[in-house]
Specification:
heterodimer, A: about 300 residues, Rossmann fold, ten-stranded mixed sheet, two-stranded antiparallel ribbon, 7 helices, 13 strands, B: about 260 residues
């Protein structure tokens, strides 16, 4: 921990250790901020997204009069104080109504920022269905070839995955896969829909899946963007070498999932090979002496 | 019913840059050199007086509370008028101060080592201090074919002061200086050129070179076999390794590289 003052309590030390750069990082936290004049729609959107991202988000209650695209220092200050690397800033004015700026940070500096306009919004409480428990890890689906073709849309996809991913886990309980977030990019608009997965009884072991609309649904249109330069983005993607999985030698996998191993043998003398013993094929002493042709008969003991 | 998720393939940017390995502290370097390893200490110590297991330090420690010590013996050879309690308190304060100083020095060394990135492309992080930026600007100016001599300066940038040392090879004596020294130097040169005896003693030079090569080979071997040897091996192998004289001699040897005229 590089700080001039050593932490005096164990609690302070743990607090600082949680925030320092690590090999395996913590789950990214998001901060949801209201701008100078944020209307009801924008506030509702922020509250709903807070509900979706519940333990890993901070909702700021007061309005903060900043313009993220002009001056990023205020956002960086908040990010440093609350240790959040994702942010969602909502504001409203005549030129940009129902504005939402989604962004992420690298090393407490703004990496990417994309401004989206909300065209239509259906909130959680408007849809009268059963909801998922808080903290459910969602499944993300991206539809539309714009997400692969257009550079800005590709960054937006990466941003949305980062935002809604939740904690990274090695294994997941199948009954807990309840929440689906579906993003479609078509006609220059981005539609976000959330569904709850209902597992219905079917004849076989695999249950029948039914999707029921629930939760916030947004119709967004992309406005301004502030994307990081290529080399800064590459720098942020860089993973330390220690995280690379160790490659086991002499083991290979093929496409079908079969594992192949290689064994290295030394040179073998095939004449001295130890094979199965078949007792019936063993040479009897009489046969052996006949083969030798009396070349070396047994020496009889002479008295 | 639990499913194992496959390894993630989609690369997402990190939150913070990966942690840099911090350079070893002075003690850690010394311990590695000597082969000293950490010994895990027990958390409880047997207190003979209280006849129970007590902590090693902290609340109700094994040796009794040091702030309540009512007896401080005057050590042999100390001034009998001196206040021993004051001396103990002063020494503790000095120890704490020295520890803190060493910790700060280690931190500063680590910070300096971390930011001395010589040739990596210098990406602006936004929070570099003025000295770093100045250093970076100087490196950028000097990385031209004419080593920055004809590089235009910004309107308010101060002119670089001509460094008096100018590096080892760019040091020149003033033209009209010490006339006596110049005269003696020229006469000595003439004398060496005229004499029959060679200036370079071949045998001495060759011996020096051989010794240097042996030292390098020994250092390379020591690096490989470090884990196997221990304190004993280290002590036996290099008797005068970290002495001042041998270090200086080694430095001098390295400064004169190609001895084989």
């Amino acid at each position: 921990i590089y700080c001039y003052r050593k932490p005096k309590t164990k609690r302070a030390k743990r607090f600082l250790e949680k925030r320092e750069p690590k090999l395996n990082e913590n789950t990214k936290n998001a901060m949801l901020i209201k701008g100078g004049n944020a209307n009801l729609t924008v506030t509702e959107v922020l509250k709903d997204i807070y509900a979706v991202k519940k333990p890993f988000a901070v909702l700021y209650k007061r309005k903060n009069i900043t313009r993220p695209f002009e001056d990023q220092t205020s956002l960086e200050f908040f990010s440093k104080k609350s240790d959040c690397s994702l942010f969602l800033f909502g504001s409203h004015n005549k030129k940009r109504p129902n504005n939402l700026i989604i962004g992420r940070m690298f090393d407490y500096h703004v990496l990417d920022m994309i401004e989206l306009g909300i065209e239509k919004f259906v909130s959680l409480k408007d849809v009268k269905n059963s909801k998922c428990p808080e903290g459910t890890k969602p499944m993300l689906i991206f539809a539309g070839d714009m997400f692969d073709v257009n550079e800005e849309y590709r960054r937006l996809k990466s941003l949305l995955i980062d935002f809604f991913r939740g904690p990274t886990v090695p294994s997941i309980r199948l009954a807990g896969l309840e929440y689906v977030l579906h993003f479609t990019a078509v006609d220059g608009k981005i539609y976000m829909r959330s569904y709850k997965v209902l597992l219905k009884k079917s004849g076989c072991k695999i249950p029948r899946i039914e999707l029921e609309e629930m939760g916030p649904s947004l119709d967004l249109v992309m406005r301004r963007t502030h994307l990081a330069s290529d080399d800064l983005y590459k720098l942020s993607l860089k993973q330390p070498k220690a995280l690379k999985p160790k490659k086991k030698k002499n083991i290979s996998h093929d496409v079908f999932g079969t594992t192949y191993g290689r064994i290295h043998m030394q040179k073998q003398d095939l004449s001295k090979l130890q094979t199965r013993k078949m007792k019936g094929l063993k040479k009897r002493p009489a046969e052996k002496s006949a083969e030798d042709g009396g070349a070396a008969p047994k020496k009889s003991k002479s008295a | 019913l639990v499913a194992r998720l496959p390894e993630p393939t989609f690369r997402l940017p990190r939150e913070k840059p990966p942690p840099r390995p911090r350079p070893p502290t002075r003690w850690e370097q010394f311990a590695r050199l000597k082969g000293i390893r950490r010994r895990k200490k027990t958390s409880l110590v047997w207190d003979e007086q209280a006849k129970e297991w007590r902590r090693r330090w902290g609340y109700r420690r094994a040796g009794g509370d040091p702030s309540r010590a009512w007896l401080a013996e005057v050590p042999a050879g100390a001034d009998p008028e001196e206040d021993q309690f004051a001396r103990l308190r002063r020494e503790k304060r000095e120890r704490v101060a020295r520890n803190e100083l060493n910790r700060l020095r280690n931190l500063a060394r680590a910070h300096r080592a971390g930011s001395a990135v010589p040739a990596a492309p210098l990406h602006p992080t936004g929070h570099q201090d003025r000295d770093e930026l100045r250093r970076v600007a100087r490196v950028a100016r000097v990385s031209t074919a004419s080593l920055g001599r004809f590089q235009p300066r910004l309107p308010k940038e101060p002119a670089e002061p001509p460094s008096r040392s100018g590096g080892k090879k760019r040091r020149f004596d003033p033209l009209l200086g010490n006339l006596a020294a110049e005269r003696s130097r020229q006469l000595e040169l003439l004398r060496d050129m005229g004499s029959k005896k060679p200036v370079l003693d071949i045998t001495r030079a060759v011996n020096k070179q051989l010794r240097q090569e042996e030292a390098e080979a020994a250092a390379a071997n020591k690096g490989k076999k470090q884990s196997k040897r221990g304190k004993r091996g280290r002590r036996q192998q290099r008797p005068g390794r970290s002495g001042k004289k041998s270090g200086a001699r080694r430095q001098q040897q390295q400064q004169k590289p190609a001895v084989g005229g």
